[in-house]
Every structure is written in C-alpha cells, then in structure tokens.
Specification:
Layout lengths: L5 H5 L1 E13 L7 E13 L3 E4 L4 E7 L3 E10 L20 E12 L2 E10 L7 E13 L3 E12 L1 H8 L3 H7 L9 E14 L4 E12 L1 H5 L7 E12 L1
C-alpha cells in the first residue's frame, strides 16, 4: 500500500456550504430581497484563497498578527428599475467585480481591518473603502461571537451611480436632480456568530445594522436611512 502524502493534504484548508443573505433591494431601499449564495473558504498554503464573495485572492503577508493582500471581489449591491416605481427611468446598476486591496492587524481577541475595492466591471461603480474593528469571544467549545463597528467610504463615481440623479435621469423618472459627492457612505455595527455542530459541520449567522450618511442619506433615491443586513449559512469543513 503506497504511503499517504500528509504534507500535500495539509497544504489545503477547505470549507464549503451555502448561505442566504437578506438585504435591502438597493442601497437606501425600504424593501428587501433574499440572495442565495455559495459559502466557501478554500486556502492553499496560507497564500492563495477562494472565498464567498472573493473568488480569487493572494496574501502578500499572512501570519498570526498581519494579513494583507489582493483579491477579486464580487460586489452584490445592485439597483434595478423594477425595485421601486420611482426608479423607472433611472437605469439599472448591476452587481460588479472589484479589484480589492486589504490589510488586517490582529491582537487577540481584537482585530482592525481596512480595504479598498475598485470596480473593474466597467459599470461606473467607482471605488469603495472600509475600516472596521472587531472583538471575538468564544462562548464554550462550540460557539464563537465576533462584534464591532465599521465605516464604509464611497468615491464620487460610486455616489453618483447609486445616489445621484442627473438631468437625463430626472427627466425620465420625475425625481429632482441631485449631485452626490464622495464621502462616508454609512456607519455600522455588526455581529457574527459561528456554532460548531461537530468537527465538520457549522452554522453561521450575521447581523449588520447601519445608517447611511452624507450624500447616501440625503438624496431622492434613498427611501430609508437606516438599513440592516442579515445572513445565515451552513458549512462543512474537510
């Protein structure tokens, strides 16, 4: 019987599953949609990774304190004319891929992270940034909870695409013209929980409560300034 190559097996960390995300139909909406999405976290030699909304990424640094790198991210935010009668004539804003730069510093049980992600899909969705802090608390051997605040920033192009109303859109939709500008898009507080059913199966859940700010809060497209996003997932780790 040939020997088992345990070294090659340990090069891979593989978790797969499914998730359901409940979120506003578009940023600033007062109606919601359910978005099914694959849940996976695959890592090779602590260097290359494939995740839920990041189908390809590479760590430049990855150790107990620091991780930083580059990835391709899929932004699930969108806005469709059918989402609200007042959006007729505004045009559709689709989901888009982004090139993302990220970094995180951990000092257990806390972590601080920052990222910037640029639209590379040609959908005029600009640059977005994020800064957040989290604390992780294990509750027994099976349950772990992470919680903390964050802030999202948007470029002028992103602001104009999602929150602005130009003259043509105003004529088509009846909404007043609105010049949206770069700045803080929202501030939020998030809670994430993972419950380990056994050595392989786990259930995860998250809640993010946020408040739109600046141009995101004050334009005619925005129907609700306070937003919430929830998700639940089931995963299997090999």
């Amino acid at each position: 019987m040939p020997p088992t190559d345990s070294t090659s097996t340990s090069n891979w960390k593989v978790t797969v599953g499914a998730t359901a995300i409940v979120q506003p139909r578009y940023p600033g909406a007062d109606t919601r949609r359910i978005q099914p999405w694959p849940a996976f976290d695959i890592e090779y030699r602590n260097r290359i990774f494939f995740r839920d909304d990041e189908p390809l990424g590479v760590y430049i640094v990855n150790n107990a304190q620091w991780n930083a790198g580059l990835s391709v991210q899929y932004d699930l935010n969108q806005r469709l004319e059918k989402d609200d009668s007042k959006l007729h004539g505004m045009g559709n804003v689709p989901m888009t891929p982004r090139a993302k730069l990220f970094a995180q510093y951990s000092f257990a049980p806390f972590a601080v992270a920052a990222s910037a992600a640029q639209d590379i899909g040609g959908h005029h969705e600009g640059l977005i940034g994020n800064l957040n802090a989290t604390g992780t608390l294990p509750l027994g051997n099976r349950l772990s909870i992470s919680t903390g605040p964050g802030v999202d920033w948007m470029s002028g192009q992103y602001a104009r695409t999602f929150y602005g109303v130009n003259s043509g859109q105003s004529d088509a939709s009846g909404l007043p013209q609105y010049a949206a500008h770069a700045g803080v898009q929202d501030v939020y507080f998030g809670v994430d929980a993972i419950y380990q059913l056994d050595a392989h199966w786990a259930i995860g859940g998250s809640v993010r409560l946020l408040r739109l700010e600046g141009s995101a809060a004050n334009g005619p497209v925005t129907a609700r300034k306070t937003q919430d996003i929830e998700s639940v997932s089931v995963t299997y780790t090999f």
